Amino acid sequence: MSALGQDRREEILQIATRLFYEHGFQSVGIRMIADEVGIQPSSLYYHFSSKEEILFQIALRATNDFVESLTETLQRSGDRVGSLKSIVRHYVKYFADHQLAQRVVERESRELSGIHRKEIRAAQRSYVDKLTDFVTEGTVEGRLNVRNPAIATRALLDMLNHFSRWFEPRPEMGINEFADLYAELIIDGLLGARSRS
What we know:
This protein is an all-alpha fold. It has two domains: 1-48, Homeodomain-like (Arc Repressor Mutant, subunit A, Orthogonal Bundle), CATH 1.10.10.60; 51-190, Orthogonal Bundle (Tetracycline Repressor, domain 2), CATH 1.10.357. It has nine helices and no strands.
């Protein structure tokens, strides 16, 4: 695909994300998306086979791009506490920057076809498994005080997945300061991080 085609595809995804967020997947039609982009509905089908395909690509990007951005950190050995704090900081900043897409995926994933839904869930499960292994290893090494790593990881993810519902940057605390504080609260508090002796 040409650079112009890639740019158009990106524009469609961004506009569709906003429309799905504002109106809900079921209330948005191909014509509405095409009108917002400024193209004919038939031209939109050059880039995507259906409205559901657009939603799938939004979900795939929101899941895979985020997971891939953390792959290197999750493969590290050594300072698990420091790595986990880096993961939390990255999570907070990523979700703040991609808030609409994350909300759309959370709310509208049920609209995906079976095969697409399975692919997204498989990617999400793979990430949860890797993070659980990371927390488990930190517990075995004595760096974390966690009785049940699987439940602790789910609690960690719950805190990360939903902070954007209530946090708003303000003069006394921007997103970077919040990311640092949240990393400290979760890793030191929830996971009972211990300093190296």
